[in-house]
């Protein structure tokens, strides 16, 4: 693995960890950065696999809480209900992801202008919803009604379009359905675990014929950087959102998307 490629993989891993759990579209940032840096992985597997580093960060930060939930599940109906709520929210992504996988990876992932436009539109939506969301009626992410969790999962499928943001879609959906800002972000964290792990497993299966040993070094570097940076973001972001909401992320999306649109228009 060349030094320049190693540095790019490290930068993209850092970018993944910093953006995965905030509503700015980590995949959109990765694809756009890769476009301008001239980085392209076989089957776009690098961009999917390094997300597992961010999943590992969530598991690390929430390990005690997850252990308590699964330990209590055999005798605690509330713990079982929470597990079911996450699985129900995950289900729509399984169906849409399997049916549309090839179109997403070969068309949507290869359209930088679409990604930039979705960043801008998503930023506007985030700014509006941050202001007009109804007064919260659900402040505990582990106690969302099952019907609410399923609706959030359906809304999450909008993030199949890169630039939309998985966390952004789930957070906006949760806010509109009555979740507090903190609970919306936290449920997005929990839902990310099966969603991203499932995307990783299916993508590896679909691209098993185009993977090669040389890509493993890049993936390992990106994975490690994604894990380290995501740990810091997860520990910080809930307190920030509880105090200040989502406006910063909405403006960031609009700024990045606008700059990319201008760069593409200029021929870069």
TrEMBL record:
Keywords: Antibiotic resistance, Cell membrane, Cell shape, Cell wall biogenesis/degradation, Hydrolase, Membrane, Peptidoglycan synthesis, Transmembrane, Transmembrane helix
Additional note from the record: Bacitracin is thought to be involved in the inhibition of peptidoglycan synthesis by sequestering undecaprenyl diphosphate, thereby reducing the pool of lipid carrier available.
Function (record text): Catalyzes the dephosphorylation of undecaprenyl diphosphate (UPP). Confers resistance to bacitracin.
Membrane-spanning segments: 49-70, 82-101, 113-132, 183-205, 217-238, 244-266
Catalytic activity, as annotated: di-trans,octa-cis-undecaprenyl diphosphate + H2O = di-trans,octa-cis-undecaprenyl phosphate + phosphate + H(+)
Keyword flag Transferase: no
Origin: domain of life: Bacteria
Main location: membrane
Enzyme Commission (EC) number: 3.6.1.27
Subcellular location: Cell membrane
InterPro entries: UppP
Topology relative to the membrane: Multi-pass membrane protein
Family: Belongs to the UppP family.
Name assigned to this protein: Undecaprenyl-diphosphatase
């Amino acid at each position: 693995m060349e030094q320049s490629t190693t540095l790019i993989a490290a930068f993209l891993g850092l970018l993944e960890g910093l953006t995965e759990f905030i509503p700015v579209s980590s995949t959109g940032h990765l694809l756009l950065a890769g476009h301008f840096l001239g980085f392209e992985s076989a089957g776009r597997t690098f961009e999917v696999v390094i997300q597992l580093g961010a999943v590992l960060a969530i598991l690390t930060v929430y390990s005690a809480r997850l252990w308590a939930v699964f330990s209590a599940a055999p005798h605690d109906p509330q713990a079982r209900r929470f597990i079911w709520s996450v699985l129900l929210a995950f289900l729509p992504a399984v169906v849409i992801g399997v049916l549309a996988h090839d179109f997403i990876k070969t068309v949507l992932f290869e359209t930088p202008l679409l990604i930039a436009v979705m960043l801008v539109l998503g930023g506007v939506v985030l700014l509006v919803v941050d202001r007009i969301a109804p007064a919260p009626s659900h402040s505990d992410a582990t106690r969302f009604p099952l019907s609410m969790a399923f609706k959030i999962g359906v809304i999450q499928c909008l993030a199949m379009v890169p630039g939309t943001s998985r966390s952004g879609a789930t957070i906006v959906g949760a806010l509109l359905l009555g979740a507090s800002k903190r609970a919306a972000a936290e449920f997005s964290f929990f839902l990310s675990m099966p969603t991203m792990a499932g995307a990783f497993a299916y993508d590896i299966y679909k691209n098993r014929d185009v993977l090669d040993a040389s890509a493993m070094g890049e993936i390992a570097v990106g994975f490690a950087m994604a894990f380290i940076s995501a740990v810091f973001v997860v520990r910080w972001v809930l307190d920030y959102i509880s105090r200040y909401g989502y406006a910063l992320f909405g403006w960031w999306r609009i700024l990045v998307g606008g700059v990319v649109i201008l760069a593409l228009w200029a021929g870069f």
